[in-house]
Amino acid sequence: MIEPQPLVAMIHAVPAAARTAQEAFAHEFPQATVWNVLDDRLLDDARAVGGLSDALRRRMLRLIGHVIEGGAQAVLLTCSSYGEVVDTARTLWDVPVLKSDEAMFQAALAGPFARVAVVASTAPAVPAAVAQLEALAPAVRAGRPVDIVTALSESAAGPADAEETARHLADALQAAGAGDADAVLLAQYSLTPARAALSALLGVPVLDGAGAAARELRGLLTRAPGRAEAAVTP
Question: Which family does it belong to (predicted)?
Fold first, then answer.
């Protein structure tokens, strides 16, 4: 064990992701001391230049360096748009640095699921999720193919009610032919509040990135027994 209350820094691009991640850590990894860093211009500036510029990559690396120099023993980026910066960060620092949904994708691929569905309420999140799943699959489940089906429900971005959001997501999944999926992966932290309701509607496990990240870091920082089993629990 590193210490009783390891310091985990989370770098956010939107306040909603911060709230979702904090709730996940309070439930899954309450031993952690959470340090939230918010740069609410990260997404807008990336959209303005059509992606990640060198300047934006350096900006995120400075944020990661800032929290590590401040004593963070692990870092979680809650914005999937900046995930590629993590690969560079891992060459610069020894502490664990996680992409927003990386632990969820690894848990899904390591599990018994032959067919997984990825659902989102914003279009860019879908191909980004599929790309990560396909990149991780050879290492995580060599010799075991996985069928990936996707669904998009822009209607799910509006409702504040979790059950209504879940119904929109379920409708999109059924329309996309994903009704027989063994598990559903939520491609955005903002959809996490609908996880339980969506699982009840579909009757299959629904995995979310924030909870999976909290369980992964709990295992890494405390060597908690049963980490692998906990990782695939929705």
Answer: Belongs to the HyuE racemase family.
